[in-house]
Amino acid sequence: MGLFNLLFGQKGFTHGIHPPYHKDTADKPIRRLPFPPQLVLPLDQHIGKPAIPLVVKGQEVVRGEPIAKADGNFSVPLHAPATGRVAGIELMPTPKGPKTSAILIDVYEGSTQEVLWEQPRDMSELSPQEIIQAIQDSGMVGLGGAAFPSHMKLAIPDDKQVDTLIVNGCECEPYLTCDHRIMLEHPKALLRGIRYAMRATGTEKAIIGIEDNKMDAVELLKGHLSKGSPVEVKAVETKYPQGSEKMLIKSALDREVPTGGLPADVGVVVNNVGTLAGLGDLLPKGRGLIERVITVAGPGIAKPGNYLVPLGTPIRHILDHVGYEGARTEFILGGPMMGPAVSALDTPITKGTSGLLVLNEPSIEEESHKIWPCIRCARCVSACPMHLNPSMLGQLAAKRKYEEMAEDYHLTDCFECGCCSYVCPSNIPLVQYFRIAKAINREQAA
Amino acid sequence: MSEETSIFGPYTHAKSSISRTMGLVMLSLLPATLFGLYQFGWPAIFLFLTTIVACVLAEAFSLRVAGKPIKPFVMDGSAILTGWLLAMTLPPWAPWWIGLIGALLAIIVAKQVFGGLGQNLFNPAMVARVALLISFPLEMTLFNQPVPMFSAQAPGFLESLAITFGSSDAIDAVSSATTLGHLKTELGRGVALPEAATTTVSIWQQLWGQTSGSLGETSALLLLLGGLFLIYKKVINWHIPVSMLGTLALLAGLFHLIDPNSYVGPMTHLLSGAAILCAFFIATDLVTSPVSIRGQILFGAGCGLLIYAIRTWAGYPEGVAFAVMLMNACTPLIDHYLKPRIYGRDRKGQPLVYSNEGTDRK
């Protein structure tokens, strides 16, 4: 425990960083964008097996209708975000990198934003099992960025017992404010979603963890809770990566997930506020996930804000509507710390995309392009939230000693938050080294 | 190497760079350095400049031989800083070739032979200082009283040139033992400490730096100021300075209590010699100190212990350079054994074990 925590008695994870937060869009209400002429819907917007198409080229679909079904349990279905005609199933670019199969929908001009396909249900009559099934049918995944199927996360294995649902409202990535807006604008849907998740998991307590730079959301949610409510709102320190599952569990409950284990091993299940607000909205209506809120921001954007966009909207369409300076070339999906940069403007917004950032080229270039030798300054060591030794890992990576990295320095515990690269005065791309090392180790193990 | 570029995430970066780090260290050294140069006059300025220029030239030469880009590496400021630190530990009126040889030893032998920036095992300035002390014991132990610039005794510009670059006996007129040197000699002759200490300078003079000693080591107060600035700027952690000075003071206090006649008290130990300079600027050298907090505490304590032992029982009145080098040699070992506990693992690196209830901590 660090000196700060010792002195001020604050619980929380140690290390981490304080990047400039740039939460300038926090006061921008969620706005809808018009439909693009064509939607690109990759079949693998989630972790797990890709969905199986239910439609064929030329088929007409209505907004909300299922267009692909889950392939087994570790998969989720896909729904049509707009009324139109299926233009084909083709390989398209995605934020993940390689092109993958995607359903293309030519949106009808004048297509309504009313959802035309739904199966309302009475939630109070569902058993936990049925709630889990309903969640899978909605196609919901972790909207914080991981895109892990929500029904998998909320289905607690028989040999585990969870006592607490942690609701992740930290949003620790710079620029992003979509979760903040959801908490402010849809508190009731969020609290409904929390109740469903508690019933599905059998937990009797829920903690909404929110970074203390969003006290308006903390106060608002507290106001919606009655005395004796099993839901508690907890302000946690504003510090990256507070929104990482493991860090938030440490901050909220002072429990540590064992290496190689799951949150359920310490009696916890964690869900993002966007995900739960989504479930609170979709489940009673029996609808599927067809749109999501993203933060569009960065110095290159003319009209930054929070936008509700249909899944599959190409980022070019969004940029045309918000206006951006064409000279900027760095487009990042998600936050600047962990989000990938994309070059193809045909790349669509998918379920796991929480933001679209257009960063000033100089703000990337300045010093951060030149790589210097490691001077062992140990800033990375005091930044790593997992308490690894990135300095040593980086030097081993340069020598291609990938096995030693994993065995002696626990490379696999790294979750690639980017704190080490952020603080490195030598601008060593440590995270990139670690990704390569992990990939090579995986290849050799296979 | 520095020509490589990175275009990977994260797409935001802290305002930190090597040259910024080096610049901050130099900035924090500035008050004590200016004071030292003022105290010891033109010869000190000549020696200071000679050492730094020689370091930069040696760095450029080595980079050329190694086939590395010269300009970016020279511009990073690390060679200037090495020269600066080395000059601060030299007797202020030492001849120019002491600075030159020291610079060559520091840059070529202690730094570039190991692979350049970040690769050296030992602190380059301390390697040079130790090698000089052993090779040229006379020049390296000839200290002079402070003769502030513009004062009556201060040597003029031309006379100073002769002191640094030519042969001059001027130093004999003002030569004076350092506090630690004087006490060591007197104790060696069997004089009791309170008696020997009557001729040394007061604590206040030591604090300010109005005493004979190495070029930049005399003003404990200004060095302390610079050190605190570095901690404030998060260039260094507080752990090494505190554990080093704490250990030194504790040992000195303990032995002084037991036998005040033979053991020097803690204030003299802390304020004289290179203790403060070492605690904040040399032992904390990023490259050659451990990376973990527990490692840094152990490292600092080790330095303090060795400094005390060398000063008290060994042949030299001052042991900072030896102590730091010995602890530098231990750094890889300390880093290997004192790894921080990783999240989700116990100290041995095994995954944490929880009971079936899930909530009970191990």
From TrEMBL, chain A:
Binding site for [4Fe-4S] cluster 2: 384, 414, 417, 420
Record-annotated 4Fe-4S ferredoxin-type domain positions: 360-395, 405-434
The keyword Zinc appears for this protein: no
Main location: membrane
Keywords: 4Fe-4S, Cell inner membrane, Cell membrane, Electron transport, Iron, Iron-sulfur, Membrane, Metal-binding, Repeat, Translocase, Transport
Localisation per UniProt entry: Cell inner membrane
GO MF, one example: metal ion binding
Task of the protein: Part of a membrane-bound complex that couples electron transfer with translocation of ions across the membrane.
NCBIfam families, alphabetized: PRK05035.1, rnfC
Name recorded for this polypeptide: Ion-translocating oxidoreductase complex subunit C
Organism: Candidatus Thiodiazotropha lotti
